[in-house]
Write a structure and sequence with these properties.
- A nine-stranded mixed beta sheet has the order 1-2-4-3-5-6-7-8-9, with helices on both faces.
- α1 crosses α3, α2 crosses α8 and α3 crosses α4.
- The longest helix is centred in the C-terminal third of the chain and has 20 residues.
- The chain is built from eight helices and nine strands.
- The N and C termini lie far apart (about 45 Å).
- It has a single domain, classed as Rossmann fold (3-Layer(aba) Sandwich), CATH 3.40.50.1820.
- Helix content is about 35%, strand content about 20%.
Length: about 280
């Protein structure tokens, strides 16, 4: 397979395209002195309601997920989309070049060093955001590999040896994984903070496994501000911020907004319906 065909295939699977429109692209320093690229979306309105760090899927970058950054900004949150260099586009291409797409991606999403680097990225992004938002409310949001990162930070047991710090107020995992190569059975039962999990009825896992496996973390979590949102007709890539489905993007942003309102109220149960999204809570 040529490099061009590899890049094209990975773009289809994991959103390697880089949509524009980020409010500000910044370079931060990680604790290991490496540079970190992020896109920052400043909150609209006089006060900052909270700050969010967005962790992309494998192959993603700081220029993706514009719809989430813009939506959070419009809700009054400071949002930072992280560029995970060690699991970004170059890392994906290097892994799939010799192993094929599926094997290469599986190798990357089970690589401990890739997750450790992600946590360094998230820590640096959080430090920057915390200094610019007076609110104590913090949210970690992740899609695909970013969802695995998010749930590890929240306290999920895993097979890659990562111990999360549970340092955020709430978590949003988009396209989370069920038990398999990353997480063991019952990995999520110890998570105590508020969590929103989002998937779609066409959001199949790597290898074509049914989207329903993505509901396993919700079923395993103990009650206490846990939400599951299933977006009708949404595919994995519809969540990736490529403009493949504006309807899915709008519904995703609406679900996240409703969840954060519940967290802020301290009455963490859905208020009203979200068109096209089946929401379950416990």
């Amino acid at each position: 397979m040529t490099l061009t065909r590899i890049a094209s295939a990975c773009a289809v699977l994991y959103g390697l395209a880089t949509p524009t429109g980020a409010q500000e692209v910044l370079t931060l320093k990680r604790s290991d002195s490496k540079d970190l690229a992020v896109s920052a979306y400043l909150p609209t309105g006089a006060a900052c309601k909270g700050w969010a760090v967005m962790s992309p899927g494998a192959g993603g970058s700081e220029t993706g997920y514009h719809y989430l950054g813009a939506a959070l900004s419009s809700m009054g949150y400071l949002a930072v989309v992280v560029g995970h260099q060690e699991s970004g586009r170059r890392a994906v291409l290097e892994n799939v070049r010799g192993n094929g797409i599926r094997a290469g991606l599986e190798e990357l999403i089970t690589e401990p060093e890739a997750y450790r680097a992600r946590f360094l990225d998230i820590a640096a992004s959080g430090q920057w955001a915390r200094a610019r938002c007076a609110s104590s409310l913090s949210i970690l949001i992740g899609h695909s590999m970013g969802a695995a990162t998010t749930l590890m930070e929240a306290g999920a047991k895993n097979k890659v040896g990562i111990q999360g710090g549970d340092s955020f107020s709430a978590y949003v995992a988009i396209s989370p994984q069920g038990a398999g190569i990353i997480f063991p059975v019952d990995a999520w039962e110890g998570i105590t903070k508020p969590v929103l999990l989002l998937t779609g009825t066409r959001d199949s896992e790597l290898g074509g496994v049914s989207w329903e496996v993505r509901t396993e973390p919700f079923r395993n979590m103990r009650p206490g501000c846990k939400w599951l949102g299933v977006v009708d007709g949404a595919t994995h890539m519809n969540f990736a911020g490529l403009g493949a489905s504006r309807r899915t993007e709008a519904r995703t942003a609406q679900a996240i907004g409703a969840f954060l309102e519940g967290v802020t109220r301290g009455e963490c149960s859905p208020k009203g319906r979200i068109a096209g999204v089946e929401v379950t809570s416990k």
